[in-house]
Amino acid sequence: RLRVSVTLKCHKLGTVRLPLSTTIVGSSQPPLQLTMTAHARGPELSLSATELSWGATECLADAARTLTLHNESCIPAPIKLFVKNARSKFRVLNLREAVLAPYESLELEVVACLDDTTLHRDQLHVVVAEGDNFMVPLAAKGVGTTMYSSHDLSLVDFGPQFTSSTFERKITLENKGRRSQVLKWVNETWQLAQLARGGSITTTTNEVSSSSSNNNKKHAVTPIFAVLPEEVELRPRTAAVF
Fold first, then answer.
1. For residue 237, which of 194, 186, 196, 178 has the smallest C-alpha distance?
2. How close are the terminal C-alpha atoms of the chain, in Å?
């Protein structure tokens, strides 16, 4: 008895049926016939999650989620990654194509950077060569503001200045959102000081309403800081200098 190993290499997916003949040298009998059957398939991948949800996410800030791909087959798995919408607010960080070795895992970093305080949805597609493709739904809800400035507005420091002189500093604000924004500057320190002296606030400047001109002079407080223009409407993707 002799054991013979037969190797089959498939070049397309699906069911394969091939005849195999065995000829015995010196025998007058016809060759022995048998049929080989096989089912050819590509690499098999699994995902750590069927969808990615960010929940409430700060606008204009990158928020990342991790998605792990695992090659569960004994052959390499070439993959391609893309997000469905061309101008999507979701992206896969620094990766579009890859090849997973047999039984290898790959972590994908999917980033959301939202430009509106609405619910954003998209789809991440994982295309596997000669295998099953995947579609991962993406969802995130924008919160916060879509206004952007390259300056740190938590503190506007003018530094040392001479008294009794006017000085200014220019700051640019950009509306990176999809909708128009109305900006209105309010000097809260001046308003509180005016109310403490018994005046009433009519505008964000040094205009004060009172019962008489004498009371107006008595209670008037001149603000030290002012922003011009006090109010402006910024259309989407536009900027203004204050």
1. 178
2. 94
